[in-house]
Amino acid sequence: MVEILIRRLDEDVPLPSYAHPGDAGADLTTTVDLELAPGERAMVPTGISLALPDGYVALVHPRSGLAARCGVSIVNAPGTVDAGYRGEVKVMLINLDPAEPVRLRRGDRVAQLVVQQVERARFVEVERLPGSDRGDGGYGSTGGFASGPGREPVTPAPLPTVFEEKQ
Ligand SMILES: O=c1ccn([C@H]2C[C@H](O)[C@@H](COP(=O)(O)OP(=O)(O)OP(=O)(O)O)O2)c(=O)[nH]1
Ligand SMILES: [Mg+2]
Prior knowledge:
Blueprint: E1 5-8, E2 17-18, E3 25-29, E4 34-36, E5 41-51, E6 56-61, H1 64-70, E7 72-74, E8 79-81, E9 88-95, E10 102-104, E11 109-117
Antiparallel strand pairs: 1-5, 2-3, 3-11, 4-10, 5-9, 6-8, 6-11, 7-9
Bound molecules: deoxyuridine-5'-triphosphate (DUT) and magnesium ion.
Deoxyuridine-5'-triphosphate binds near residues 80, 90 and 91.
Cofactor: Mg(2+)
Function: This enzyme is involved in nucleotide metabolism: it produces dUMP, the immediate precursor of thymidine nucleotides and it decreases the intracellular concentration of dUTP so that uracil cannot be incorporated into DNA.
Pfam family, one: dUTPase
């Protein structure tokens, strides 16, 4: 078990806690009351900052209960808390419900922190990559969608290039 140094930025803020032994995610709470209209997002403070050991990351994951009951998710899920980050951990909540606003109170559990070891990579540039069974097949290349064929992945339409004369 890894030890993580933690600072409370707000009195009474509970430390992240695992609801059950064996849980992967430790719950984070909001330090503010907030209301999110349908489609609205907010950067929600958790009142804690961390010093993760080198080689670790903390990922800010949504809670499935909030998602299932209220349609609340995290815009950048999972958020990445880098080992060197010493600022307040924040949660970018979004209300994806098309009709209902959602109200959250200070102390409500709004996200869960998953701590993981990470591998750092050295990126080695080459002219040609080694072949593989999959090759460049992706984005549904193996089939199996209920909607069947005929629906293509959405790709952005190119914007017309506008040249502005500089004076
Ligand atoms: O859900 C999140 C995501 C990020 N962070 C903090 C910790 C993280 O180390 C820092 C930067 O996050 P990220 O690298 O995802 O954002 P960026 O847009 O790349 O910003 P930067 O240029 O500061 O790296 O913001 C959070 O508190 N919560
Ligand atoms: Mg970054």
